[in-house]
Amino acid sequence: MPGSLEPLDLGVQIPYHFRCPISLELMRDPVIVGTGQTYDRSSIEPWMATGNSTCPVTRLPLTDFTLIPNHTLRRLIQEWCVANRSYGVERIPTPKQPADPVTVRSLLNQAGCESNSKHARLTALRRLRGLARESEKNRLVISTYNAREVLLGILFSHNSSELNLESLAILSSFPLSESECLLVSSDPDRIAYLTSLLSHSSIDVKVNSASLLENVVAGTRSPEHRAEISKHNEIFERIVGILNYPLTYPRAMKVGIKALFALCLVKQHRHKAVEAGAVEALIDRLADFEKCDAERALATVELLCRIPQGCSAFASHALTVPLLVKIILKVSDRATEYATGALLSLCSASERLQNEAVTVGVLTQLLLLVQSDCTERAKRKAQMLLKLLRDSWPEKSIRSSDDFVCSDVVPF
Known about the structure:
Number of helices: 25
InterPro entries: ARM-like, ARM-type_fold, ARM_PUB, PUB22/23/24-like, RING-Ubox_PUB, Ubox_domain, Znf_RING/FYVE/PHD
Structural class: mainly alpha
Pathway: Protein modification; protein ubiquitination
Shape: globular
GO molecular function: ubiquitin protein ligase activity
Function: Functions as an E3 ubiquitin ligase.
Helix content: 55-70%
CATH superfamily of the largest domain: Leucine-rich Repeat Variant
Order of helices and strands: HEEHEHHHHHHHHHHHHHHHHHHHHHHH
CATH architecture of the largest domain: Alpha Horseshoe
Strand order of the largest sheet: 2-1-3
Protein name: U-box domain-containing protein
Radius of gyration: 28 Å
Number of strands: 3
CATH topology of the largest domain: Leucine-rich Repeat Variant
């Protein structure tokens, strides 16, 4: 149903006590705060999340931030919706409630207690994984109770591979703190274990391990620790293998490109990505990525184009230049910036690629780019590329470009 229901639109007045005191709209998931006042969950949660510690209506302090579902009021609202169906009012669905904090605490204690049986711990972990997958609200509740610390302890224990893999599956749903990333990245044995899981027979285990490794690399500030992780040849080979997994498992592509990009941020080991086949994987799958992942893939392409091995490998792929030219101004401002930067590196290294870029229409794309609302960095790269390609332009292309004036676009 619409977010706002006005009496004039429906010919029916929404009862005052059915409206949230914050949004003044019909409540869809009414909850009671510590003062006894009821609010819509979607309104009171952001209020609390921004640091407010008082009840918006009564102004009394909230000493307990637990939100209790007001089932009675929600049912009354649903009955009112049904009764006014003829006015265009749709019945609000029964909301799925977030995980119960008491249950979450109990499951974490059960999973983390080594004196419990393996079956009991495994059951608790599987219930936690189910809750984590249901909603972001559940993940927020779970992370409140030091869940990551408990799960990391289980993951790197030697009790049971089943327990390890269940904890890994849950951890892949959560971002790690800087200290937690350091806890993993500073221990070679832990990195070696996660790397070994990249070759597991299950694609889910591979992807979960790649997700956690990406999380650790991205969240580790120490250049030494990041370099230590990315120095292993097999880590790139296995990440590229995940990236090449069939499209029937889109999460593999999403996690694969995130992990590859994070690893390629370590400059001294980018050549390992090239040797592992990252160039072919990136170009062959570039058209399959969603927008955000396409941006990350193009950023990775630009990073790899900055090293001789990467530049040579991309130059050898017949689709590299046509694809990069086609992407300009098509996906997003960021994608345009990265594609232009990659073309600049490639054309700077090869006269053959300069001619190829001009042949497939880069001139028109760059002229449009410098006159667009794209980022200043993208425009600067476009100007540098235009200057580089000056001698490669067909003379008739310059004469036929009514909008192009050399001195206005590129400071030669």
